[in-house]
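Risk mitigation, structural track. In case the binding assays with pyridoxal-5'-phosphate fail to produce interpretable data, a predicted complex structure has been prepared as a fallback.
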Amino acid sequence: MRQHAQDLVYLDYAASTPVDARVLDCMNDVHCGPAGAANASSTHAAGRYAGRIAETAREQLAALLGAKPSNLIWTSGATESDNLAIAGAARFRSHRGRHLISMPTEHKAVCDVMEALQREGFDVTWLTPEPDGRLDLDQLAAAIRPDTQLVSVMHVNNETGVVQDIEAIGSLCRERDVLYHCDAAQSLGKLPIDLAHLPVDLMSITGHKVYGPQGIGALYIAERDGCDVYPLLHGGGQERKIRPGTLAVHLIAGLGKAAEVATGCMRESLAHVTALRDLLWQRICALPGLVRNGSDRFVYPGILNVSAGDVDGESLMLELEPLCVASGSACNSKSREASYVLRALGRSDLQAQSAVRFSFGRDTPVADVEFAAKRYISAVERLRSIASPMRSSAR
Ligand SMILES: *Cc1c(COP(=O)(O)O)cnc(C)c1O
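Fallback model:
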């Protein structure tokens, strides 16, 4: 595992996971082996060797997804995959219609490319989530028009852990001849995904949320009439010209290895994070005024998002140190605006800005969760006592 400074307690796995030791070994072997200096496009022996490493990784990732290796395109991560899937498919099908559907609770990588396409003349419908974060399928059915080309709804939400029914969403899209794109950055290797049976046309994944390296991801593209993307980049012929550029063979090998490891330990990991989440909630739920954000039934248990409501989010983060957790949205951590995801679930500005996302993984020790619970309770109590000294002294 990538080591964190010793005095830090890291519970921000939804932002990035430590790299698994087996993955690190694998990447090291690539660098030190015959492919270390080679370009996978070269026809000489070293280049062919590098190419084989990338193809082995493609098979490992395909196995985890129930996909064919030829349906996977390497990218730099889920941000690029989201862009390639959405802009690429929208432009590919623009002669048929220019209407797209998504949700305001998507990752910025989806929301922002949708907005960019709006400026290009595409029309986007944003579906409001239910208070628990889930998509109402009737609302989706009603929003699909004759000119609709693509629906983009994520699998697991990065802030709340809410899980969407991607099978039902995909089936509805198939019935109406609309492409379905799913951002699965948070669910790859954590929840079962079987693309051999799921009606998903495009799926974005990334390495660094599944104990692989940062800077590598993939886009799954189903083999189906009308399902294709225009490239965003133009260059060599790599990745069927859909994503040209020299392959980052060591990162690809790392993602392949991470997929293989995840295939073997998914069930065990899920049980582990469920136990941690239950422990954490049990420890902190007695705090007055605490609310849990998102569904508590349809949720990936590696994420627990809570709001204390009446405490200042920024002060809370400072009080929580050396605990590493996310406030509001990690992507918004530099701006002070309250999480747009939680606002879309109907949370007040105060509730959204005081939100804390705890996220853990397969190697998180119970002791870290116990520490987090204690730290969180004392931080909230301290901030509340500062805010109203009378109340606390009267207790
Ligand atoms: C992390 C994340 C992304 C961005 O992935 P990168 O590989 O960091 O570009 C996109 N979507 C979701 C849901 C994520 O959690």
